[in-house]
Please model this.
Amino acid sequence: MSGKSIPIRNVYVMMAYAFSTIRSPGQDRFASEKFEHLHELFAAILIDGVSRQVKRGLQHGYVARSEELATVRGRIDVTRTAVQRSLTRGRLVCEHDEYEPDTAHNRALKAVMTLLIRHGDVSRARKVELRNLLPYFSQVQLIDPASIRWNTLTYHRGISGYRLLLGVCELVVWGLLQGQAGRDAMLSEWLGDEKMHDLYERFLRNYFKVHHPQLKPAASTIPWDKDATRSPKDDHLPAMNTDLVLRGGGRTLIVDAKYYGKSLQVSRFGKESISSSNLYQILSYVRNEEAQSGGTVGGWLLYARTDAPRQPDLDVTLHGNRILANTLDLNLPWEDLRTELERIVTEFWPAPATAP
Model:
């Protein structure tokens, strides 16, 4: 798979885009410093980011507490006070909120830093740096990394610095807890195809959000072009959730990101072709989008390049809609990789010709 030799620099840049932190100050060195493997990169990002967060102050939040006290604080829990016979000891059971750093975000950071120290293939020097940060989390509960519910962690402007850190933490947990801790493990082996697809998709979407906001990049849901008066049972229609839609100047481009071990299917007669399901999917997106928005609508299947001798290479017009399928080589130097990404825009929004 293409994850075999993705340059460490590209791994960092992909994460920086995927977790919306590409403009974070002071992190340019990760794009140029040489790291032997992923553990070292992840540890370095955590050390740098957590150190910055400590200087600004760790996130605090209100945590609900219930305890037996000699004075009233917050709300008296009358039932528990009676059950525990607290009054006989001159005390009351009170429920109150404590403003402290024991938040879900900080628990995840502490759990993953501890996981890297104990099980990560990280240099002794960086393990020492990680250990030196743990005392700042003394009031934070140490939890099992496997118990973290990443999709429940939310972010706002005040804790935007946590976004990349916890994105890295999520990747560490996916890799280490699945036993892919080896120094020479491929990125795709480390994360698995599902997580790599998610990273690849988010990277593409946020790249265009940063560099082409005028095209309103978004992961849109396309409504079906159905006859409402003749569709009494439509509850089981699947949702058409796109990876990336670009819109501008009367044109719409739907990009479907694909991260597979094999990007071409082979018939029983040995003929290689684009996956039928992939092609039908992008055609369905395009036709239904065109029915809703009008204008020029095209589709692009963008596969992560594999090590296979032949790669998808398609540019056809079907029912008046241009459909492309090719690959993005994540092994290229970042400057070349960015050129490939920019070609997606110039194919559908060519620069106007200059007057002689």
The longest strand covers residues 61-69. Residues 187-211 form the longest helix (25 residues). The domain at 214-227+237-348 is CATH 3.40.1350 (Trna Endonuclease; Chain: A, domain 1).
